[in-house]
Amino acid sequence: MEEPEMQLKGKKGGTDKFTESIYVLANEPSVALYRLQEHVRRSLPELAQHKADMQRWEEQSQGAIYTVEYACSAVKNLVDSGVYFRSVEGLLKQAISIRDHMNATAQGHR
């Protein structure tokens, strides 16, 4: 009965040593660096594309921001120019009044 038990322990011990050896090899630093290199090689093109996309979106956003700021400035200038429009309106009313007065005076001299 001892012999099958010894064989089992021997096989188990051999299997454990083999498993430990595989584990050590799989986690050996050069293998880890190789795996890291493979990961970078696979990931880098996608990351580069994302970076290019983000730069393009940033440029588009900057253009849109400039357009909005320019439009806001134009609206503010229009609001500020209301004083001048009211002044021109008053001058036009005054000119129409003077014209009407001159027409009335001209008709009175005839």
Automatic annotation (TrEMBL):
The reply on keyword Membrane is yes
Please tell me whether the keyword Membrane is annotated for this protein.
yes
Q: What Gene Ontology cellular component terms go with this record?
A: BORC complex; lysosomal membrane
- Report the principal subcellular site: membrane
Q: Which UniProt keywords apply?
A: Lysosome, Membrane
Give the location in the cell: Lysosome membrane
Q: Which residues cross the membrane?
A: none
Q: Which InterPro entries match?
A: BORCS8 (IPR019320)
Source domain of life is Eukaryota
Family that this chain belongs to: Belongs to the BORCS8 family.
The protein here is known as BLOC-1-related complex subunit 8 isoform X3
**Organism whose genome encodes this protein:** Carlito syrichta
Species lineage = Eukaryota, Metazoa, Chordata, Craniata, Vertebrata
Gene encoding this polypeptide?
BORCS8
